[in-house]
Write a structure and sequence with these properties.
Length: about 400
């Protein structure tokens, strides 16, 4: 099997580093992947596939790190986008589509009575904390150690450019560890405005960890008793576990929920939704951005929600993810390799069980990617409802070849 070359990607990246600090930044930075084994620049996408600037075609299991959920260039979503684009996108006022979208979301997402919109996940996770502070008159925030809530100063995993005060009101506890949670509750009793958590733990460079039995019930009960606002950051998992919100999937009731990624099927939009009792305080917390009222992404999101309901997208993603992950697990055994699968099937993750440095996974994901299926070695993967059985079968062929290389290089 001929493997891909990335010459144009490398060349353009070299030029980019002269014009753009670090060339490509954030989680898309090539610095965190095996150099020369992954594409750096995308050209176009269709369905579950995309093409890089070297003309290589990939079956995509990162889905733009989540925003692609129904397939690139989805006909119904793009029809809604082009209809709205013809009328215009950004005006002195929002378009009526903003009210249409808010109504659809309120009817869909369980327990939520209102919605606001922004562009990125970080916009709404940060804003939701301000709402909690306004509502409670308290300053402190509890979050899970290793959780990602965005790139703003209070939560960025980066270290540069920060001052101690950025984090001085943010305190950590351990996922699924009730005593670590209660310790923080007791230490800061009466000062905690919000507990912000993802619906399950999906750290980079680690296995995804589902909530232990009773975990969410403990969190919710304690937040209710202590009058702390419970915020769910559903930016990554939202609309991939249950269209009514991941809190429905795990059986609990948050106060505020943040969405982004899947909601616009690649069109930039995020949302924060909340219960009625926070609406008044939410209306006091300043919220705006130059493009935040744009109609085109909102028209896209209306179409996304319709398509998801029509085709039962979550079930397709779960079924395709299950086929992929069970196939990878079985194939690994035939090569005498041990893999650990974690996370829900629509947002799965895999690593080699007998190492903790990801070196095998880097080689494995690079070799799979060079054959035409984009896998990431230390970030969870994403399925879309555009993935087909044929895609999965092809990917398992790519994985078969890659497992052989891993076995030759590292042994069992
Ligand atoms: C759970 C979670 N919260 C927040 C964010 C931040 O979203 P954005 O990158 O759109 O600001 C992300 C992004 O990956 C995320 O996965």
């Amino acid at each position: 099997m001929e493997t891909y070359k990335f010459d144009k990607s490398m060349e353009l990246f070299k030029k980019a580093t002269t014009l753009i600090p670090s060339g490509i930044y954030g989680h898309e930075s090539p610095a965190i992947l095996v150099p020369g084994s992954f594409p750096y620049y995308a050209e176009r996408g269709q369905g579950s596939h995309y093409w890089d600037i070297d003309g290589n075609e990939f079956i995509d299991y990162i889905c733009a790190y989540g925003p692609m959920v129904l397939g690139y260039n989805h006909p119904k979503v793009e029809a809604a986008v082009s209809e709205q684009s013809k009328k215009g996108n950004c005006f002195n006022h929002p378009g009526p589509v903003m009210v249409e979208l808010a109504e659809k979301l309120v009817n869909l997402v369980s327990g939520m009575d209102w919605s606001v919109f922004a562009k990125n996940g970080s916009d709404v996770t940060s804003w939701s904390i301000q709402v909690a502070r306004e509502h409670t008159g308290r300053s402190k925030v509890l979050m899970v150690s290793g959780a990602y809530h965005g790139a703003h100063a209070w939560c960025t995993p980066g270290h540069a450019g920060l001052i101690a005060e950025d984090r001085s009101n943010v305190h950590l506890f351990t996922w699924n560890d009730e005593s670590s949670f209660h310790q923080q509750i007791e230490k800061y009793r009466g000062e905690i405005a919000a507990v912000i958590m993802t619906p399950y733990h999906h750290p980079a460079f680690g296995d995804s960890i589902m909530p232990a039995d009773g975990w969410w019930q403990t969190i919710q009960k304690t937040c209710n008793e202590e009058e702390i606002v419970l915020i769910v950051d559903d930016v990554r998992a939202g609309f991939r576990l249950d269209p009514r919100g991941s809190h429905v999937y795990f059986g609990f009731e948050p106060d505020l929920v943040c969405f982004c990624k899947a909601i616009g099927n690649t069109h930039p939009l995020s949302a924060c939704m909340g219960k009625d009792k926070f609406k008044n305080d939410a209306s006091k917390v300043f919220l705006t951005g130059s493009y935040w009222n744009s109609s085109v992404p909102m028209a896209a999101a209306c179409a996304v929600l319709d398509v998801m309901a029509e085709e039962n997208s979550v079930k397709i993603m779960m079924d395709m993810g299950e086929k992929l992950m069970k196939g990878l697990e079985d194939l690994a055994k035939t090569h005498g390799l041990q893999v650990k699968i974690s996370g829900p099937y629509s947002i799965p993750f895999m690593r080699f069980a007998n190492e903790d440095n990801f070196l095998r996974n880097q080689l494995f994901c690079a070799e799979v990617t060079k054959r035409g299926s984009f896998f990431h070695p230390h970030h969870n993967w994403f399925l879309s409802s555009a993935h087909t059985e044929d895609d999965i079968n092809k990917t398992l062929e790519h994985a078969d070849a890659a497992y052989k290389i891993v076995k030759d290089e590292f042994g069992s």
